[in-house]
Amino acid sequence: MVTFLRDSALIARHEARRTLASVRALVLLALFVLFSALVALATAAAARGIASAVDEQIAQGQPDASAEERAQLHAQLDSEFQARRGEFLAVWFSSDPALLEAVKDVPVFLLVLFKLSLLFLPAYVALLGYDAVSAELADRGLRYVVVRTARGAVLLGKFAGLAAVLLSLVAGTQGLVIGWAAFTDPSFGPGVAFVTWARFTLSGLTYGVAWLALTLLCSLLFRVPMVSLVVNGLVMFGLWLTDLVGSVSDGGLVRVLRCASPTHYTGDLLHPALARFGLSALACVAFASVLLAAGGAILRTRDV
Amino acid sequence: MDAAIELVQLGKRFGSHAAVDGVSLRVPTGSCFGLIGPNGAGKTTTFSLMCGFLSPTSGSISLLGVSPSAPGALKGRVGVLPQDARLPQWEKVGSLMVHWARLSAVGAPEEAARECLRKVGMEGAWDTRCHALSHGMARRVGIAQALLGAPPVILLDEPTAGLDPRVAAELRALIRSLKGQHTLVISSHNLQELEELCDGAAILDKGRLVRAGPMSELTAQAEQFTVVLAGAAAPPLETLRALPGCAAVTLEAGGRLVVQLDGAGQLPEHAIAAVLRALLDAGCLVSELHRGKRLEQRVLELT
Question: At CB < 8 Å, which residues of chain A contact B?
């Protein structure tokens, strides 16, 4: 067991170094930054719309009103602003009051960006690791490794290495975006920014490892990396669709099946109630564990 | 002698095609053993089964007492040069060798990696990325990684394929120096090389074992010898046929005198000496003498 874990750690370190040194990690990072900029621009436009509506109401207010009347107007406008913020977040983030209360100090664009990044995270993960095993099956490079260690250690090592890369990408990109938000928005203080960064990173990683396990499973099933990527994409889409259909159906099998999709658990990954967060995180980890165990069993017996 | 590798009724099918069919053989510990056969004979499949790359469809393999497909069973026991496996293209040779040495649990991995590269004349490639290596250089790095940690069993698939004659000769010398310290299995099309290096061999054809045994038996060294004559003098065939130990003597084209031995108690060396004496007495000039049959001839006869 010690040898197994030691070998897994060696392979993880090698895989992480190799991936981080590759052009692919840079491309994914650049894609995320572009994507963040796009969301930031879109939400800034939406925020400007809300702000101009509020400004309009202020302009319509009576200039000779008393201080008490002005305070009342500000309170009313603030309430209206919060209501519109809530409506916007209900569409783009979550309608859960407890969750919205927990993130009330976080700029709207960060929440929307996080939600959208979770939507696209499976695709990022697939692009990151679709050829982790299949490329080495294709050129038989895996043969140099499997004579030196258990195949299970190869899989676990690759998983851990790519999870480390995923962690650094998620932490890095969230750090960039949240850091920029803290720099430009004085109401978003460093303390809240740090907590937001930690929560976003942890949630992103938890969700990402579930998809990473699926990506590795697809990668070890096929010798042709593009086939692995296409199958990965189809399964991903199938799971996303199952969750979507299950969420709008009144009952039946689809409603139950959506529990098998990691997408089902994204809503609670930032939830302030520990039980709800824990259950979602546990579901993602269980999803990853089952797929990794299946992958280990397949890799152990398949020809390389 | 103990068997380092033992195959029992080994079979491997790819769909309906039987690549290896009921092969049983033993590779003695410390020997240098060849896998021989034409294209499609099942050499590489048998080799891959020995390395645990492929799982057998039927039968069993024991390598130093363990199954190659058991998790981690080959660690530190086996060094392998696979035939068609590419080195990771963007890795540097040195760091890759160190990584593999660590995985093989070799003590002082960097020193071991440098030493193995030195043995194959590739110590200068430490900082070279694998994609920049020529075919021959990559092959030598492949051999170097098989030597990491001095494993008791070394399996080499076509070790000198595509190498220039000088490097191939150097590698043959290296393989010769490993004999006795390791059990070596070499799969190759180069029969002259195998005849020179190996103590024993298995000849495969269409997935089946045709013949296996010591090289002296395979090449029928106790059964015949050939003398190549030079000059115009005719050999005294009747005198030769009457010599003790000689069962038949035939003169073939090109002055090749083939002497079949009767194997009746007398050592072949005595018969060879008697034949040479008779030829020299008759004024014949001898340019070459070869015991048994060429391995190539033997393989052509059997496959």
Answer: 3-4, 7, 10-11, 14, 18, 21-22, 136, 139-153, 300-304
Q: What φ, ψ does residue B56 adopt, rounded to 5°?
A: -70, 145
Best of B86, B87, B156 to substitute, by most chain A Cβ atoms within 10 angstroms, is B86
pLDDT in tens, A163-180: 999 999 899 989 988 998
Check if the beta carbon of residue A111 is closer than 8 Å to that of residue A103.
yes
Alpha-carbon distance of A215 to A132, in angstroms, equals 9
> Measured between alpha carbons, how far apart are the two ends of chain B, in Å?
28
Exposure on the CB side of residue B175, measured as CA atoms within 13 A: 29
Residues of chain B below pLDDT 50: none
pLDDT in tens, A111-135: 888 888 888 899 999 999 999 999 9
Q: How far does A179 lie from chain B, in Å, by closest CA?
A: 34
Greater confidence, B152 or A41? B152
Is residue B171 a contact partner of residue B160, using CB atoms and an 8 Å limit?
A: yes
Sign of the C-alpha dihedral, residues A138, A144, A148, A153?
negative
Are A148 and B74 within 8 A, CB to CB?
yes
Asked if residue A149 lies in contact with residue A246, where contact means CB atoms within 8 angstroms, the answer is: no
For position A63, what pLDDT does the model report?
Answer: 61
Is A130:A221 a contact under the CB 8 Å cutoff?
Answer: no
- pLDDT for res A107: 86
Please give the structure tokens belonging to residue B119: 């043995």
Whether A43 shows a pLDDT value over 80: the answer reads: no
ipTM value of the model? Answer: 0.84
Rounded mean pLDDT of A258-262? 88
What local confidence, expressed as pLDDT, does residue B203 receive? Answer: 93
Cβ distance B52 to A3 less than 8 Å, yes or no, reads no
Domains and CATH numbers, chain B: 3-215 (3.40.50.300), 224-302 (3.30.70.100)
Strand-strand pairing, B224-230 and B256-261 = antiparallel
Non-local (6+) Cβ contacts of A253 within 8 A are none
